[in-house]
Protein backbone atom coordinates (compact mmCIF):
# COMPACT_ATOMS: atom_id res chain seq x y z
CA UNK A 1 0.00 0.00 0.00
CA UNK A 2 1.24 3.48 -0.84
CA UNK A 3 0.07 5.12 2.38
CA UNK A 4 1.77 3.30 5.24
CA UNK A 5 -0.21 5.15 7.91
CA UNK A 6 -3.53 4.17 6.30
CA UNK A 7 -2.37 0.57 5.89
CA UNK A 8 -1.33 0.34 9.55
CA UNK A 9 -4.65 1.87 10.59
CA UNK A 10 -6.55 -0.72 8.56
CA UNK A 11 -4.60 -3.48 10.26
CA UNK A 12 -5.38 -2.00 13.68
CA UNK A 13 -9.12 -1.73 12.94
CA UNK A 14 -9.32 -5.31 11.65
CA UNK A 15 -7.54 -6.51 14.79
CA UNK A 16 -10.22 -4.68 16.82
CA UNK A 17 -12.78 -6.88 15.04
CA UNK A 18 -11.01 -10.07 16.09
CA UNK A 19 -8.49 -10.55 13.28
CA UNK A 20 -4.96 -11.47 14.26
CA UNK A 21 -2.38 -9.11 12.78
CA UNK A 22 -1.26 -11.75 10.28
CA UNK A 23 -4.87 -12.56 9.33
CA UNK A 24 -5.47 -8.87 8.66
CA UNK A 25 -2.34 -8.60 6.49
CA UNK A 26 -3.31 -11.69 4.50
CA UNK A 27 -6.91 -10.51 4.01
CA UNK A 28 -5.74 -7.12 2.71
CA UNK A 29 -3.21 -8.85 0.43
CA UNK A 30 -5.97 -10.99 -1.10
CA UNK A 31 -8.03 -7.84 -1.64
CA UNK A 32 -5.10 -6.19 -3.37
CA UNK A 33 -3.78 -9.08 -5.47
CA UNK A 34 -7.04 -10.90 -6.17
CA UNK A 35 -7.22 -14.67 -6.52
CA UNK A 36 -3.98 -16.03 -5.09
CA UNK A 37 -2.41 -19.12 -3.57
CA UNK A 38 -0.83 -19.14 -0.16
CA UNK A 39 2.57 -19.36 -1.81
CA UNK A 40 1.96 -16.20 -3.87
CA UNK A 41 0.61 -14.25 -0.86
CA UNK A 42 3.61 -15.24 1.28
CA UNK A 43 5.98 -14.11 -1.45
CA UNK A 44 4.20 -10.77 -1.94
CA UNK A 45 3.96 -9.78 1.73
CA UNK A 46 7.24 -11.27 2.91
CA UNK A 47 5.89 -13.60 5.56
CA UNK A 48 6.66 -17.27 6.03
CA UNK A 49 4.46 -19.69 4.13
CA UNK A 50 3.54 -21.51 7.35
CA UNK A 51 2.22 -18.24 8.87
CA UNK A 52 0.29 -17.38 5.71
CA UNK A 53 -1.20 -20.87 5.36
CA UNK A 54 -2.30 -20.76 9.00
CA UNK A 55 -3.97 -17.36 8.45
CA UNK A 56 -5.66 -18.57 5.27
CA UNK A 57 -7.13 -21.48 7.25
CA UNK A 58 -8.37 -19.05 9.92
CA UNK A 59 -9.89 -16.65 7.39
CA UNK A 60 -11.53 -19.48 5.45
CA UNK A 61 -13.02 -21.03 8.61
CA UNK A 62 -14.36 -17.59 9.59
CA UNK A 63 -15.82 -17.26 6.06
CA UNK A 64 -13.84 -14.08 5.39
CA UNK A 65 -12.34 -15.53 2.19
CA UNK A 66 -13.43 -18.00 -0.51
CA UNK A 67 -11.66 -21.03 -1.96
CA UNK A 68 -11.97 -20.24 -5.66
CA UNK A 69 -9.96 -23.15 -7.09
CA UNK A 70 -9.64 -26.34 -5.10
CA UNK A 71 -7.02 -27.73 -7.50
CA UNK A 72 -4.56 -24.82 -7.29
CA UNK A 73 -5.63 -23.89 -3.73
CA UNK A 74 -6.29 -20.30 -4.70
CA UNK A 75 -8.34 -17.99 -2.52
CA UNK A 76 -10.22 -14.70 -2.94
CA UNK A 77 -11.18 -12.16 -0.28
CA UNK A 78 -14.84 -11.60 0.49
CA UNK A 79 -15.92 -8.14 -0.69
CA UNK A 80 -15.38 -5.56 2.10
CA UNK A 81 -19.00 -4.35 2.02
CA UNK A 82 -20.35 -7.86 2.49
CA UNK A 83 -17.78 -8.74 5.16
CA UNK A 84 -18.31 -5.55 7.15
CA UNK A 85 -22.10 -5.86 6.98
CA UNK A 86 -21.76 -9.37 8.42
CA UNK A 87 -19.34 -8.17 11.11
CA UNK A 88 -21.66 -5.28 11.99
CA UNK A 89 -24.67 -7.58 12.37
CA UNK A 90 -22.64 -10.05 14.42
CA UNK A 91 -21.37 -7.27 16.68
CA UNK A 92 -24.85 -5.79 17.19
CA UNK A 93 -26.30 -9.22 17.96
CA UNK A 94 -23.48 -9.96 20.40
CA UNK A 95 -23.86 -6.58 22.13
CA UNK A 96 -27.61 -7.06 22.45
CA UNK A 97 -27.15 -10.53 23.94
CA UNK A 98 -24.45 -9.35 26.34
CA UNK A 99 -26.46 -6.33 27.43
CA UNK A 100 -29.46 -8.48 28.32
CA UNK A 101 -27.57 -11.28 30.02
CA UNK A 102 -25.03 -9.12 31.86
CA UNK A 103 -27.76 -6.82 33.12
CA UNK A 104 -29.46 -9.86 34.65
CA UNK A 105 -26.27 -10.63 36.52
CA UNK A 106 -25.86 -6.95 37.46
CA UNK A 107 -29.43 -6.82 38.79
CA UNK A 108 -28.78 -9.89 40.91
CA UNK A 109 -25.54 -8.32 42.16
CA UNK A 110 -27.31 -5.09 43.04
CA UNK A 111 -29.45 -6.99 45.54
CA UNK A 112 -26.26 -7.82 47.43
CA UNK A 113 -24.71 -5.22 49.70
CA UNK A 114 -21.84 -3.24 48.21
CA UNK A 115 -19.57 -0.38 49.23
CA UNK A 116 -17.37 1.08 46.49
CA UNK A 117 -14.64 3.64 47.02
CA UNK A 118 -14.35 6.50 44.53
CA UNK A 119 -11.08 8.33 44.04
CA UNK A 120 -10.76 11.51 42.00
CA UNK A 121 -13.13 14.11 40.63
CA UNK A 122 -13.63 12.41 37.23
CA UNK A 123 -14.57 9.06 38.79
CA UNK A 124 -17.09 10.81 41.04
CA UNK A 125 -18.68 12.82 38.23
CA UNK A 126 -19.01 9.76 35.99
CA UNK A 127 -20.62 7.72 38.80
CA UNK A 128 -23.06 10.51 39.71
CA UNK A 129 -24.25 10.91 36.14
CA UNK A 130 -24.60 7.15 35.75
CA UNK A 131 -26.51 6.79 39.03
CA UNK A 132 -28.97 9.59 38.22
CA UNK A 133 -30.32 7.53 35.33
CA UNK A 134 -31.28 4.68 37.68
CA UNK A 135 -33.62 6.90 39.72
CA UNK A 136 -37.30 5.97 39.66
CA UNK A 137 -39.01 7.98 42.42
CA UNK A 138 -36.91 10.41 44.46
CA UNK A 139 -33.44 11.95 44.57
CA UNK A 140 -32.11 13.73 47.67
CA UNK A 141 -29.09 16.02 47.31
CA UNK A 142 -26.95 17.99 49.72
CA UNK A 143 -24.25 19.87 47.85
CA UNK A 144 -22.42 23.09 47.09
CA UNK A 145 -21.62 21.91 43.56
CA UNK A 146 -23.20 23.74 40.64
CA UNK A 147 -26.21 21.71 39.51
CA UNK A 148 -25.41 22.58 35.90
CA UNK A 149 -22.82 19.77 36.09
CA UNK A 150 -25.77 17.36 36.01
CA UNK A 151 -28.28 19.47 34.06
CA UNK A 152 -28.86 16.90 31.32
CA UNK A 153 -29.29 14.05 33.80
CA UNK A 154 -31.56 16.07 36.09
CA UNK A 155 -33.77 17.14 33.19
CA UNK A 156 -34.03 13.53 32.07
CA UNK A 157 -35.09 12.13 35.45
CA UNK A 158 -37.55 14.99 36.04
CA UNK A 159 -39.11 14.30 32.64
CA UNK A 160 -39.80 10.78 33.94
CA UNK A 161 -41.57 12.12 37.01
CA UNK A 162 -38.72 11.66 39.48
CA UNK A 163 -38.86 14.09 42.40
CA UNK A 164 -35.60 15.99 43.05
CA UNK A 165 -35.09 17.49 46.52
CA UNK A 166 -31.89 19.46 47.09
CA UNK A 167 -30.24 21.34 49.95
CA UNK A 168 -27.35 23.79 49.95
CA UNK A 169 -26.13 26.06 52.74
CA UNK A 170 -25.85 28.95 50.28
CA UNK A 171 -27.83 29.70 47.15
CA UNK A 172 -27.00 27.70 44.04
CA UNK A 173 -28.70 27.91 40.68
CA UNK A 174 -31.69 25.67 39.97
CA UNK A 175 -31.32 24.07 36.55
CA UNK A 176 -34.99 23.07 36.36
CA UNK A 177 -38.07 24.70 37.94
CA UNK A 178 -39.24 21.36 39.33
CA UNK A 179 -36.18 20.98 41.57
CA UNK A 180 -37.18 21.56 45.21
CA UNK A 181 -34.19 23.54 46.42
CA UNK A 182 -33.72 24.63 50.05
CA UNK A 183 -30.95 27.03 51.08
CA UNK A 184 -29.85 27.93 54.61
CA UNK A 185 -28.44 31.35 53.73
CA UNK A 186 -29.73 34.06 51.43
CA UNK A 187 -26.44 34.61 49.64
CA UNK A 188 -24.79 33.11 46.59
CA UNK A 189 -22.34 30.24 46.94
CA UNK A 190 -18.89 31.65 46.19
CA UNK A 191 -16.56 29.01 47.59
CA UNK A 192 -14.97 27.18 44.67
CA UNK A 193 -13.86 24.56 43.96
CA UNK A 194 -16.92 22.95 45.50
CA UNK A 195 -16.29 20.46 48.28
CA UNK A 196 -19.45 18.68 49.44
CA UNK A 197 -21.78 16.21 47.76
CA UNK A 198 -24.31 13.77 49.22
CA UNK A 199 -26.96 11.94 47.25
CA UNK A 200 -29.59 9.29 47.92
CA UNK A 201 -31.48 7.58 45.10
CA UNK A 202 -34.88 6.01 45.90
CA UNK A 203 -33.57 5.06 49.36
CA UNK A 204 -31.64 2.34 47.54
CA UNK A 205 -28.24 3.88 46.80
CA UNK A 206 -26.16 6.62 48.38
CA UNK A 207 -23.13 8.50 47.14
CA UNK A 208 -20.97 10.68 49.38
CA UNK A 209 -18.06 12.72 48.04
CA UNK A 210 -15.56 15.19 49.46
CA UNK A 211 -13.53 17.31 47.09
CA UNK A 212 -10.35 19.06 48.20
CA UNK A 213 -7.13 20.25 46.65
CA UNK A 214 -5.20 17.51 48.42
CA UNK A 215 -7.55 14.58 48.01
CA UNK A 216 -10.89 13.86 46.38
CA UNK A 217 -12.61 10.72 47.55
CA UNK A 218 -16.04 9.26 48.02
CA UNK A 219 -18.18 6.22 48.72
CA UNK A 220 -20.99 4.65 46.68
CA UNK A 221 -23.12 2.11 48.53
CA UNK A 222 -26.47 0.42 49.03
CA UNK A 223 -25.77 -0.30 52.71
CA UNK A 224 -29.05 0.33 54.57
CA UNK A 225 -27.42 2.02 57.55
CA UNK A 226 -25.44 4.39 55.33
CA UNK A 227 -28.58 5.16 53.32
CA UNK A 228 -30.51 6.11 56.46
CA UNK A 229 -27.68 8.23 57.86
CA UNK A 230 -27.22 10.21 54.62
CA UNK A 231 -30.97 10.62 54.04
CA UNK A 232 -31.50 11.75 57.65
CA UNK A 233 -28.64 14.22 57.32
CA UNK A 234 -30.15 15.79 54.21
CA UNK A 235 -33.64 15.92 55.72
CA UNK A 236 -32.34 17.39 58.99
CA UNK A 237 -30.62 20.22 57.10
CA UNK A 238 -33.87 20.96 55.28
CA UNK A 239 -35.99 20.76 58.46
CA UNK A 240 -33.63 23.08 60.32
CA UNK A 241 -33.64 25.62 57.51
CA UNK A 242 -37.43 25.54 57.29
CA UNK A 243 -37.71 25.91 61.06
CA UNK A 244 -35.42 28.94 61.04
CA UNK A 245 -37.49 30.53 58.31
CA UNK A 246 -40.88 29.75 59.84
CA UNK A 247 -40.06 30.70 63.43
CA UNK A 248 -37.46 33.37 62.66
CA UNK A 249 -35.10 31.69 65.09
CA UNK A 250 -31.47 32.60 64.74
CA UNK A 251 -28.75 30.03 65.30
CA UNK A 252 -25.99 31.45 67.47
CA UNK A 253 -22.56 30.23 68.60
CA UNK A 254 -23.90 29.35 72.06
CA UNK A 255 -25.38 26.18 70.57
CA UNK A 256 -21.88 24.78 70.00
CA UNK A 257 -20.81 21.74 72.01
CA UNK A 258 -17.03 22.20 71.59
CA UNK A 259 -16.49 19.00 69.60
CA UNK A 260 -13.60 17.98 67.34
CA UNK A 261 -16.04 18.11 64.42
CA UNK A 262 -16.75 21.78 65.10
CA UNK A 263 -13.08 22.64 65.40
CA UNK A 264 -11.91 20.96 62.19
CA UNK A 265 -14.82 21.93 59.94
CA UNK A 266 -15.75 25.34 58.63
CA UNK A 267 -19.39 25.46 59.77
CA UNK A 268 -21.73 28.08 58.31
CA UNK A 269 -24.85 27.44 60.40
CA UNK A 270 -24.35 30.31 62.80
CA UNK A 271 -25.23 33.14 60.41
CA UNK A 272 -27.96 35.53 61.50
CA UNK A 273 -31.45 34.49 60.47
CA UNK A 274 -31.75 37.62 58.36
CA UNK A 275 -29.45 35.88 55.88
CA UNK A 276 -31.49 32.69 55.97
CA UNK A 277 -33.71 31.60 53.12
CA UNK A 278 -35.75 28.57 52.33
CA UNK A 279 -37.02 28.29 48.79
CA UNK A 280 -40.68 28.80 49.63
CA UNK A 281 -42.05 28.09 46.20
CA UNK A 282 -40.38 24.72 46.09
CA UNK A 283 -42.03 23.26 49.13
CA UNK A 284 -44.24 20.32 48.24
UniProtKB/TrEMBL annotation:
Ranges of residues in domain Transcription regulator TrmB N-terminal: 16-80
Pfam families listed in its UniProt record: Regulator_TrmB, TrmB
The organism's place on the tree of life at top rank: Bacteria
Transcription regulator TrmB C-terminal domain segment(s): 118-227
Protein name as catalogued: Sugar-specific transcriptional regulator TrmB
Source organism: Thorsellia anophelis DSM 18579
